[in-house]
Amino acid sequence: MTRKKIKHEQIANESKRNAVFRKRVESLLKKANELSILCGIEMGIIVKRGEDNNPNNANPIFWPSPEVFTERLHKFTNFSNFEISKKMVTKEKYMEQALNAEKAILSKSKKIIEVKESQESIKEAMKGMCIDEIDTSHLNELNLFVDE
Cα torsion at 138, 142, 144, 147 (round to 10°)? Predict the structure, then answer.
């Protein structure tokens, strides 16, 4: 059973809005903690309400703690351009890597098919099929297969 779509609009009742905000922030921080543990990464999150005129919401939330967040932020901003470019993957690089991986899979599949066709040709030759009836491309593949 599918869930019904959520309307993305501001909640009119302020107490409900604050309750939803607190729940969503808790969920976000829990997921961030899980992600940092499971993937072994250092991350930091700042959550600040958009309402600057409300003094109750003036303090932003830093995760995991303000001190650790500040340390991680300084570590991130102090990366050299070389380190950043070395670790960063652009869309083009990602697509190129994915394309190369697919090409490797395709070539591996082609080799497997060639080997199976060669094996079939050998089986046919052993059954008594005349060598003249075998296609020359299969004979060349057989020759390569035997050489390997």
Answer: -170
24 is written with which tokens? 């969503």
Evaluated on CA atoms 78, 81, 83, 87, the torsion sign reads: positive
Q: Who contacts 98 (Cβ-Cβ below 8 Å, separation ≥6)?
A: none
From residue 110, how far is each of 42, 103, 104 by CA, in Å? 42, 10, 10
pLDDT beyond 80 at 10: yes
Superfamily of domain 14-87: Transcription factor, MADS-box (3.40.1810.10)
**What does the CA dihedral 6, 7, 10, 13 come to, rounded to 10 degrees?**
-70
Give the model confidence (pLDDT) of 85-144 as tens digits: 777 788 898 999 999 999 999 999 998 898 888 778 777 776 766 666 666 776 676 676
Q: How far is CA 32 from CA 40, 72, 82, 127, 143, in A?
A: 11, 14, 27, 64, 58
Domain boundaries defined on the chain: 14-87, 91-147
